[in-house]
Design brief:
CATH topology of the largest domain: Transferase(Phosphotransferase), domain 1
Protein name: Protein kinase domain-containing protein
Strand order of the largest sheet: 1-2-3-5-4
Distance between the termini: 68 Å
GO molecular function: ATP binding; protein kinase activity
Largest sheet: 5 strands, antiparallel
Strand content: 5-15%
Organism: Malus baccata (Siberian crab apple)
Number of helices: 10
Number of domains: 2
CATH architecture of the largest domain: Orthogonal Bundle
Helix content: 40-55%
């Protein structure tokens, strides 16, 4: 099934004959880089049937048609999906520049976290994508983490694996990867594998749990530390901890970094009601960006004025 009027560039047979390279194993399946004989490269997610909780064909197809209709510059588009009795595949555009996880943690020689301007750019891109999912489609990402944020052809941050968590059966957090668990909002964590259906339903991801995961991701960007290593501190102590991990000597950079951290702290509130909406988060980030641009213009203006006086 091709999504949203996509042209049928290849057949299922061509897809199955493609050379496949394992890219990674996620929460509900494995992802492969598939090179088709028509010189097209795709990313194919093979879903683990055991993690889908017996989702019916009709429910799966209806949900994937909705997900496949999402189109935004900060979402990796779902191009097609396939389902048979024991096989379910999702086909996305292949992103050659890797993930934000690799960008932040992949180089062991990295002496310090990303520059705060890079953190702001990635955060704004992610917030754009999440805000679109929440506002335009009333859906939920449900599995936001740095490995699910890929870098596009222009190094824009693009979300993947979005809106699939509602199809999966929750697993006890005690068995999960500690970093993946750290992204989960307190109200969505499942502590027992014997949860009743209504209990499971209550613990499904929400827009506010996406906001929580975004806050964790932002701290990860600012510190360069995986979520399982984030310290639980009071806001003032958190600010000192993050500053101790960064080597930015510029006072202005510290100010903007502090503003970004304040956004992260607001998003990571244990109470869903106290967290901002993703649209509010996006506005906060855009205000920081506007202030950054204004500061740069002031510095440039002052340099020009000084140069003219010296002349």
């Amino acid at each position: 099934m091709f999504c949203a009027g996509e042209p049928q560039l290849y057949s299922l047979d061509q897809l199955m004959r493609a050379s496949a390279e394992l890219l990674g194993k996620g929460t509900i399946g494995k992802t492969y880089k598939a090179v088709l004989d028509i010189r097209l490269i795709a990313s194919v997610k093979r879903l683990d049937a055991g993690k889908l909780g017996g989702t019916s064909r009709e429910v799966f197809e209806r949900h994937l048609e909705s997900v496949g209709a999402l189109r935004h510059p900060n979402l990796v588009p779902l191009r097609a999906f396939f389902q048979a009795k024991d096989e379910r595949l999702l086909v996305y555009d292949y992103q050659p520049n890797g993930s934000v996880f690799s960008l932040v943690h992949g180089k062991s020689t990295r002496a310090r976290p990303l520059h705060w301007t890079s953190c702001l750019k990635i955060a704004e891109d992610v917030a754009q994508g999440l805000s679109y999912i929440h506002q335009a489609w009333k859906l939920v990402h449900g599995n936001l983490k740095s490995s699910n944020v890929l870098l596009g052809s222009n190094f824009e941050a693009c979300l993947t694996d979005y809106c699939l968590s509602v199809l999966a059966t929750p697993t006890p957090t005690s068995e999960a990867d500690p970093d993946s668990t750290a992204y989960k909002a307190p109200e969505t964590r499942t502590n027992s594998s014997n949860d009743h259906d209504h209990y499971r339903q209550r613990r499904q991801p929400t827009p506010k749990s996406d906001v929580y995961a975004f806050g964790v991701l932002l701290v990860e960007l600012l510190t360069g530390k995986p979520p399982s290593q984030h310290l639980v501190l009071a806001p003032d102590d958190t600010m000192e901890w993050v500053r101790s991990l960064r080597e930015d000597d510029c006072d202005d950079g510290h100010d903007k970094m502090a503003m970004l951290l304040e956004v992260a702290i607001a998003c990571s509130s244990t109470s869903p009601e106290q967290r901002p909406t993703m649209w509010q988060v996006l506005k906060m980030l855009q205000e920081i960006k506007e202030e950054m641009i204004s500061s740069m213009e002031e510095v440039e203006s002052e340099l020009r004025r000084t140069h003219m006086l010296a002349s």
